[in-house]
Each structure stands twice: as C-alpha cells, then as structure tokens.
Amino acid sequence: MSRIGLLTGGGDCPGLNPVIRAVVRKGINTYGHEIFGFRKGWKGVLENDAIELTLENTSGILHRGGTILGTSRTNVYKVDDGEAKVLSSLKERGIDVLIPIGGDDTLGVASKLSAAGFPAVGVPKTIDNDLNGTDFTFGFQTAVQIATEAIDRLHSTAASHDRVIVCEVMGRDAGWIACYSGIAGGADVILVPERPFDIEDVCRHITHRHETTGKTFSIVVVAEGATRGDGGAATAADTVDSFGHARLGGIAFELEKEIEKRTGFESRATVLGHIQRGGSPVAYDRVLGSRFGVAAIDAASAGTYGVMTALRGTKIELVALDEALSEPKLLDPELYATAEVFFG
Ligand code: F6P
Fold it and tell me: Could you tell me the distance, in angstroms and rounded to a whole number, from the CA of residue 94 to the centre of ligand 1?
C-alpha cells in the first residue's frame, strides 16, 4: 500500500473527473492505496492543501464536467523555492507517487520533479489535442462535438440572412479542433495556426463558392491561434499567464470586418470560447479518461515513473514524459488536405 497524490492543473476539460474516479476506484479496491487530491493544481501542492479521496466522495462524478479538485495555471518554477516547497509538502503529507493530470505546462512541472527524483506518472489532458506521444487527449472529442453543433446552428442563421459567419474555436498552437469541427460541420474555409493564412485566399474561396454554387452564405472556422501570412496581428493578446502564454481570442472579429469589406458579403463573428471546455464529457472522453486513470494507477503501483499514459492506436501505453513534452503535436497535413477538398 502507498499514498498517492493526485492533481488537475492548467485549463480544465471534460473528462478530468472520470480520470480521478478511475484512479481512486482501482487504487483503493485493487491496491489498497490511500489517495490524496491536491486542490487547484500545483497551487494546492505548494500550499499542501489536499483532501483524501474516497470511494464515496468520487462517486457520481463520471458525467460531470470540470474537476472536483479545481485547477489553476500555477508555475512552480516561477515561485521562490517552488520546487523545494513542493517536495516538502509531498514529504509532509507522506506522498509516495504523484499523478498530475494536465497539459504540457502541468506535465512539464511533473517532468522536472521527476528529474529531481520524485516519482510521478502523468495523465495528458487538453481540449487542444496538441500533446505529443498520444493520438488523442480526453476533452478533445467533447470540444469538437460542441463546436460542430455550433457550426450546424450557424449554418441555418447564415443561410436565412445571406451572411458569412466566422466561427472562432480554441486551439492555441494547433488546429485540431478547427479542422475536426470544420470538416464535421461542413465549413467552407478552415484556418489553423499551422498554416498562416492569406486574407485574399479566404475571400477568393468565399466568392468562388457564392458565384459557382449559387449559395448565398458561407461558414469560416478559425482557430484562435491562427495567424496571417503577412505577419499582421491576428488576435487580441494583451496578457500572459504564468507559463508565458498569451491570452488569445478575437481573431474572428478582425476576419468578419475584412471579409465584409473585401467581398461585399454581410458578415458576422461568433467566438465559442470556454463553452468548448464546459459541461459533460461525451462518451469517448469518459472512456478515454477512465482508461488513462486505470493505466496511471497501474503504472504508479508497478513503480514505473517519469512516464505519461498515452493512446496509441486502440491501446493504452506509457511514454516517457520527456518524449511527450519535446514539442507540440501539430495538425496532420493529410487531415488538412482532406478539409481543403471542401473549401469554397
Ligand atoms: O490550452 C487549452 C486552452 O483551452 C487553449 O485552447 C486556450 O487558449 C486556453 O486554454 C485558454 O485558457 P484560459 O482558460 O486560461 O483562458
């Protein structure tokens, strides 16, 4: 029997609670561990703020969005003596192995702690699906479903008013949500961070569609992190978080104006924002979260540390944290080529 620490860090995403439930269920029933959940990500570890997780207090959370532990974007390495404080909290609480659930920032801290000798097993999460080493992260399919439903709704109002509607989705460095939801929702143009765009090309696609098909409306899906090829500022980024990431959002408004000015078609912008991160996880994310949770507690119990759970094909595997964090997983060019078939 060991004492396991758990935390959820970074932006929340649907599927975190299924991971927590799985770690606790198997950790207690199979291994007889004690499980402690730190509140608000790394902040809770720095402050040694945790609760014991039991079969009772983790029951009924499978379908719930968000995280029962709360989360924060706390960079341990930006805090004075941060690493020492974290190690001291973990020692004081008698934690043997830590299971941080998070994206590149949260797992980056885990990787450094692991290098410093503290046993850690990571679980990858992000709606952006941009973590290397795993085919999918949980939360992504839910975000895609939400964005697709929004695009479906935008279609009917765009058609009624003969408008171009620009729908902005999340995706800081990678256009996975934009590309999947754009294909699923039948977008006429999809703009992603991996492909700096030319506003003239965008307008050409729209005009071509209207001229050749007789359609009087179009849908453009844009990832918040998309940039213009001419280097023009593409999005509002006035503040940065403790990991140095700019707060994105708003590129759709710029596009709305440019498209209307250049094409003469009346245009509107819709920013989906955090709606994509809220609410109940779809079945796929509940299953993936549960599988990751089980694999993480198995690895922690077997003494396999410095790794992250990963989906490879249909199998759950373990990959080295360093490998997973070496670079972001960018959009597959073949997928984008498929999306382009339907442009304009
Ligand atoms: O990293 C996931 C993500 O949802 C990004 O797509 C987005 O840029 C960011 O989080 C938003 O973060 P916050 O919740 O801090 O506004």
Answer: 33
Enumerate the H helices of 99-167 as residue ranges: 104-115, 140-161
Single out the residue of 274, 224, 278 nearest to residue 15, CA to CA.
Answer: 278
Residue 104 annotated in active site: no
pLDDT in tens, 303-342: 999 999 999 999 999 999 999 999 999 999 999 999 999 9
How many Å apart are CA 312 and CA 310, to the nearest integer? 6
3-state secondary structure of 271: strand
What is the pTM (predicted TM-score) of this model?
0.96
> Choosing from 128, 173, 285, 298, which is the catalytic residue?
128
Given a contact cutoff of 8 angstroms between Cβ atoms, the answer to whether 107 and 309 are in contact is no
- Which residues share a beta bridge with 309? 318
> Around 197, how many Cα atoms within 13 Å sit in the side-chain half-sphere?
26
Q: Other CB atoms closer than 10 Å to residue 249's CB: what's the count?
A: 18
164 neighbors 206 (Cβ within 8 angstroms): yes
